[in-house]
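Researcher: I'm preparing a figure for a lab meeting and need a structural model of a single chain. I don't have an experimental structure, so a prediction will have to do for now. The sequence is pasted below. Please return the structure as tokens so I can convert it later.
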Amino acid sequence: QVVLINAIKDVAKALSDLIGATKGAASKPADDPSMYQLKGAAKVMVTNVTSLLKTVKAVEDEATRGTRALEATIEYIKQELTVFQSKDIPEKNSSPEESIRMTKGITMATAKAVAAGNSCRQEDVIATASLSRKAVADMLTACK
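Model: Understood. Here is the structure written out token by token.
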């Protein structure tokens, strides 16, 4: 937030300088020193706006990492469900005990999901997505 606020302040200051330079260069010939000042102020403005956009993009990317991980996990689980629902014969058989043991992974993933929801940290959401992906895949494999 601090980096974002500083970038916004830089843009505001550059805009103020650009307005001042524009006022000073109004009705002046192209070779007047105030026109060079206007060009310089415009370049600073473009640089600061570019920097602000990069900062916003970096903040946005950080804030959406967890969302992207969850979306990828959902897509993976959809693919696993397609395999689960197919008529293909499984490569190996699972015992009832093995199927019950697979529920532990689902329970752990659920607990992690609750903790990630409480912490609101991207790293926790990403770890939960990864654990959930494995737990659901293992459960579907054992059940099939």
